[in-house]
Structure formats: structure tokens, C-alpha cells
């Protein structure tokens, strides 16, 4: 499947007529031309005809009209027009030579996802876990073409979701790994995800809710430090987005997005029906069922808490996208994949009570204690 994906990707054309593609490629062009000063996406810097040439290549009407350029908005003070997408996708595209950027980005992202799938297979020790790893690994590689091809921002997002899922599962499935550095690693990875898609900031919403509620229920210095560590690491990870906002809009907390992207939440039956008829709906059903089963059958308290974390994060993300005024085939894919990778690695890392018995700090009795009891 990986070889088939790479072969298919190798024939892709960067001028496929999608407006957002042009903007991501322009951000990459700015980074290659100006270095980190490429964060400034003002149209005033468009003095080499790059954007106009890209728009002409897709037959964009009025390609030479600055007021009609796609995914660019005017700042609040009216001083300039800047790009709306965050800088992360453009940055990773800038790592490859101009004109041959999308193919290597998607090929490497596919290899990375296949690597996570193979790692899950290598960790699996029981037939059931092995079957889960094989099935989900195949599905995740398939998703790297459809729906990931719909937006360049989705390729790095899928890799980040797999990494965050693995780190989250290790954090809660193995009590011995629950320390501040591991919590910080999850936070910084989720923070960096917002650099690819600004909506990815929601992937951390459930984590903030979990750490906050857990501290209120069990007030201790350790729980407070975990939440603080996650928050500071997330802030560090999202720093590129805040910097880009500051450069382009003059305020780190104000993005360049406008129109429907910043509309207040509302229920739209047409949007809800679109999600129900899309492949995203059965994915969410699978996540809900798997989370419920994991919480019900888990013998370790850490795994039960992990299930609650996944459930809360999923609920917050679904509440946002269900009230978003626009439907897109990949909007719910990031939270679905983050949840599924987390659940998969949680099952693999805790295949049975026997393995948990060996884990330092586990809630159940150790094998040695059980053997002593049997001898008595």
C-alpha cells in the first residue's frame, strides 16, 4: 500500500486548481526567498510575480487584482493584505526545491505513517492486538491519499496526530513513564500541530480540560505541575503561529482569518447531514465505541483516565465542527486519527494484566506477590 501511494503521489501536479494550494506554496516561496522573514506575507512583498504566475497557471479570474487574491484578507487597520493560513505547512514545503515540493512532502508523510503502523505491529504481542494494528495501519495509509490529498496541511497534520497518539498512550498506559518531560512532549507536539492548520489548536482542548478537572478533583503539587508543564510546552509549540499573527496582524492572538472562518457557532442542518453522509461519521462511531470499550474493560486506572481524556477531547472537537458553518471532507479527520492512534497504542501497550503487573507503580498486585499467595 505504501509503494502504491508513493507511485500515485509521484504523478501529482502542483497546479491542480485548488486555491489554498497556491497560498501554501506562496508561503514556502517566501521562506525560501527571505528566510524567517518569510513570516511576513504582505502582498506588498509580491514583487517577483510568483503569486500572479501561480494564479494564471490555474486560470484564476482577475489574477492580477490584489483585492481578489484567494486566502488573503485585509488587516483591521487596512494597511495591507496578508495570508490567512498559519506558516507551518509552507515551512515544510520550503524544505524541498521549488516546483517539486508537494510530491516529496506527501511521500515522506506516507513513509512516516507507515513507520508508525509498523511500530505498532512490532509492539503487538497478542493476536487481537496484532489484528488491530494491521487493520488500522492499512486504513491509516489509505487515508494518506483520501482525504489527506484535499489539503496540503493535512499531510503533516496526520503525522503529528500519530506521534501525539503514541506519546499520549505511553503517558497513561505505562505508569512508569508519567513524568513532566513526557507531558511536555505531548504539549509541544500538539502546539506545533496548529502551525499546519489553525483548527488543530482544538486537538489540545480536551487535554487542557482533563488536566484542569483532574487538578480540581485531586489537588496536589504533582497534578498542578503536570498541567503547568503541558500548558507551557503547548505555548512553546504554538509560538510560530503567535509570531506569524504578530507580524501580519499586529497582535499575537489575532489571526488573519475572517468571514465564515470566524463566524459565531450555529447549528446548520445541511452541515450536519453532510457529516452524517460522509466517511467521517463511521470513523467517529468507531472512536466512540472503542473508547467506551477501553474504559469498561481497562484494569489499570491510568488507561481509564486515558479513555476519559479521549472522550472529552472528541466531544469538544465535535461540538466545534458540528456548529461550524462549512463542511469539508477532512475537518474531523485530525481528531479522529489522534483518538484512534491513542486508543490503538493504549491497547497494544497494555495487552493484559500480566504485562501491567510488571509495570512499576501499577495498581494491581505483582506476579511475585500472587505467586507467594498461591504458595501459602
Characterize the biggest β-sheet.
2 strands, antiparallel
The helix content, as a percent range, equals 55-70%
For this structure, the quaternary state is: single chain
Beta percentage is under 5%
- Which structural class fits the helix and strand makeup? mainly alpha
Helix count from the secondary structure assignment? 17
Strand and helix order: HHHEEHHHHHHHHHHHHHH
Number of strands: 2
Mean pLDDT comes to 88
Radius of gyration: 22 Å
User: For the terminal residues, how far apart are their CA atoms?
Assistant: 55 Å
Organism: Bradyrhizobium iriomotense
Protein name: Glycosyltransferase RgtA/B/C/D-like domain-containing protein
Transmembrane segments: 103-122, 129-145, 151-172, 179-195, 201-217, 224-243, 274-294, 306-324, 330-349
Region (Disordered): 357-376
What topology emerges from the helices and strands here?
Layout: H1 2-9, H2 19-34, H3 50-57, E1 72-74, E2 81-83, H4 88-94, H5 102-123, H6 127-143, H7 154-173, H8 180-193, H9 205-217, H10 221-237, H11 239-249, H12 269-276, H13 280-297, H14 301-322, H15 333-349, H16 353-358, H17 367-375
Antiparallel strand pairs: 1-2
Helix pairs in contact: 1-5, 2-3, 2-4, 5-6, 5-7, 6-15, 7-8, 7-14, 7-15, 8-10, 9-10, 9-14, 13-14, 13-15, 14-15
Describe this protein with a few key phrases:
transmembrane helix, two-stranded antiparallel ribbon, single chain
Amino acid at each position: 500500500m505504501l509503494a502504491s501511494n508513493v507511485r500515485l503521489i509521484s504523478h501529482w501536479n502542483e497546479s491542480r486548481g485548488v486555491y489554498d494550494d497556491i497560498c501554501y506554496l506562496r508561503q514556502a516561496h517566501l521562506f525560501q526567498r527571505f528566510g524567517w522573514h518569510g513570516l511576513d506575507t504582505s502582498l506588498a512583498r509580491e514583487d517577483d510575480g510568483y503569486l500572479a504566475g501561480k494564479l494564471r497557471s490555474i486560470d484564476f479570474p482577475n489574477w492580477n487584482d490584489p483585492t481578489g487574491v484567494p486566502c488573503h484578507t485585509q488587516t483591521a487597520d487596512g494597511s495591507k493584505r496578508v495570508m490567512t493560513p498559519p506558516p507551518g505547512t509552507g515551512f515544510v514545503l520550503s524544505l524541498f526545491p521549488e516546483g517539486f515540493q508537494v510530491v516529496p512532502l506527501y511521500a515522506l508523510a506516507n513513509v512516516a505513517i507507515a513507520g508508525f503502523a509498523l511500530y505498532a505491529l512490532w509492539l503487538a504481542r497478542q493476536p487481537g492486538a496484532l489484528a488491530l494494528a494491521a487493520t488500522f495501519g492499512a486504513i491509516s495509509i489509505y487515508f494518506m491519499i483520501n482525504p489527506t490529498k484535499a489539503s496540503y496541511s493535512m499531510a503533516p497534520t496526520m503525522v503529528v496526530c500519530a506521534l501525539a497518539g503514541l506519546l499520549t498512550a505511553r503517558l497513561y498506559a505505562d505508569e512508569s513513564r508519567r513524568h513532566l518531560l513526557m507531558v511536555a512532549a505531548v504539549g509541544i507536539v500538539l502546539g506545533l500541530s496548529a502551525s499546519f492548520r489553525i483548527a488543530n489548536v482544538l486537538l489540545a482542548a480536551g487535554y487542557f480540560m482533563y488536566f484542569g478537572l483532574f487538578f480540581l478533583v485531586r489537588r496536589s503539587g504533582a497534578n498542578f505541575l503536570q498541567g503547568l508543564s503541558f500548558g507551557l510546552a503547548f505555548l512553546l509549540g504554538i509560538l510560530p503561529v503567535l509570531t506569524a499573527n504578530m507580524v501580519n496582524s499586529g497582535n499575537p492572538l489575532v489571526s488573519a482569518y475572517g468571514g465564515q472562518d470566524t463566524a459565531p457557532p450555529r447549528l446548520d442542518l445541511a452541515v450536519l447531514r453532510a457529516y452524517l453522509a460522509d466517511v467521517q461519521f463511521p470513523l467517529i462511531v468507531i472512536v466512540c465505541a472503542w473508547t467506551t470499550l477501553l474504559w469498561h474493560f481497562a484494569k489499570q486506572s491510568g488507561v481509564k483516565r486515558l479513555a476519559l481524556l479521549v472522550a472529552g477531547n472528541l466531544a469538544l472537537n465535535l461540538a466545534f465542527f458540528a456548529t461550524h458553518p462549512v463542511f469539508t471532507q477532512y475537518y474531523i479527520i485530525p481528531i479522529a486519527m489522534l483518538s484512534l492512534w491513542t486508543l490503538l497504542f493504549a491497547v497494544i501497550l497494555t495487552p493484559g494484566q500480566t504485562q501491567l503487573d510488571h509495570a512499576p507503580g501499577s495498581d494491581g498486585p505483582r506476579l511475585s506477590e500472587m505467586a507467594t499467595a498461591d504458595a501459602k
